[in-house]
Amino acid sequence: MSEAMRQGLRHSFVGAAGRYFLQTASIVILARLLSPEDFGIITAAMIVVSFAFIVLQVGGASIVSSAREDQVDEAFTVAMLSSITFAILIGGGYLLAEREILNILGIQSKALMRVLLAVVFIRGLLGPLEGIGAAKYEFKVLASSEIISYFCGYFLIAILSGYLLRSYWALVLGLLSQSILHLAFLVLKIKFRFEKVGFREFKSHLQIGFSLMANKVVSYGLAQADNIFINSFMGKSDLGIYSRAYQLMVIPTNFIGQVVGRVFIPYFRGEITVYCRYRSFNIALSAVAALFALGVGEKAVVVVLGPQWVEAYKPLIILAFAIYYRVDFKFFESVFVARREGKKLTICNVFGLLGMVIMLVAGAPSSIEGVALVVLIANAIQATLGLCMSYRSIGVNIGRGVALNATVFILSWVVIRSL
Fold first, then answer.
1. Measured CA angle at 42 (ends 40, 44), to 5 deg
2. What is the pTM of this model?
3. Among 156-160, 169-173, 241-245, 393-397, the least confident range
4. pLDDT tens column, 90-114
């Protein structure tokens, strides 16, 4: 591992760790200020908002950070112009269908959706800036911006608003202020320049952009199918409880995925020699998370979130066993992006999504615990396919890798069935 990669990992680790520490702290505090229904309303709104963000990521960070060194500014220009164009199209499309969308989601507030879409548009502009920062190894700037904006923006604003408003608007105002601060910081600190680009440049860079967007649409299905099912058949309160359990699970996986995606993609275009060490780290992390959830999970939920969230305990245990597969797939995803192998990423995501949809429709789980089990199985399918499609690139024995994944799943299943 080169010194530049080590420094990038250190800075990205500090930035991501600071952000996710503050995110965890805000979850703890806001869970005592807001109701499960408040969180359920925001989670329902994010079903549409997350899809809008995926479309904007056609011009996201990945096409900039994975570009050749002599094409970084060109890719940045294409990414930024694409983000702005799609923001205008998405905004217009939403306004035309606003009433129907609100009725489907069961949301009464037009202002809520419009402010959240404004957050998405701001974050659409952040993608190219983060990409050029990673391409130019400005990891210290990215880390500083992440910590400062999240503390001064989301953490302070959301908690203060929670005390004053006692409604889901605390979460919305926190997201908005954090996004604005992050954008302002990067504009001031990241060196970038626009180049004159034409159809050839757009075609060259957006080819991978649209490929990644297709994958992200499928990933969106994987991330939202459970929320859509719960919102449709169980209600906002159950959705709020499930979303807190899910959020606690994805904090470590998104933390690692952000560090890997931001630092490794520029290096994964060459020889990859770090997977075995990464997998060992993943095994240790996943084992600690599962043992913690089994040992003190219920008490921890009550102490940390409050007694009204005790029903989050069982889905949290099940989702804790999914951490191994999610963290493993974050590595394969970065390999596919770095090598611009979008088709392989699509196959992994499509089969994971198909598995989830089939299990939700055919199994029709009647509880959030059943939905969590469906998520675990879908994540196992996705990660195993990722291993099968990247084993040559990462230099591992496919038979041993698949056997390890199967062993982890069998152990997880035995423990879950004994609960």
1. 70
2. 0.76
3. 393-397
4. 889 999 999 999 998 889 899 999 9
Total domains in the chain come to 1
Q: How far apart are CA 12 and CA 67, in angstroms?
A: 20
Percent of the chain with pLDDT over 70: 90
CA 112 to chain centre: 21
Closest CA to 66 of 9, 2, 127, 121: 127
The two three-digit tokens of residue 260, written as one number: 């890997």
Q: List the Cα angle 254/331/187 in 5-degree steps.
A: 55
Q: Contact, 162 vs 29, CB < 8 A?
A: yes
Cα separation, 319 vs 374, in Å, equals 10
Show the 3-state SS of 117-145.
HHHHHHHHHHHHHHHHHHHCCCHHHHHHH
Residues of the domain holding 309: 3-417
The backbone region for 198, taken as left when phi is positive above 0, alpha when psi lies in -120 to 50, beta otherwise, is beta
How far is Cα 137 from Cα 388, in angstroms, rounded to an integer?
31
Whether 55 contacts 220, CB under 8 Å: no
pLDDT in tens, 312-356: 888 988 998 998 999 889 888 888 877 777 788 888 988 999 999
Quickly list DSSP for 221-277: HHHHHHHHHHHHHT-HHHHHHHHHHHHHHHHHHHHHHHHHHHHHTTTTTS----HHH
Model pLDDT for residues 239-293, shown as the tens digit of each residue: 999 988 888 777 777 777 666 666 666 666 666 667 788 888 888 988 888 888 8
173 vs 26: which has the higher pLDDT? 173
- From residue 273, give the alpha-carbon distance in Å to each of 1, 203, 365, 396: 8, 32, 41, 10
Short-list 79, 17, 26, CA closest to 252: 17
Give the pLDDT score at 86: 84
- Strand, coil or helix: 61: helix
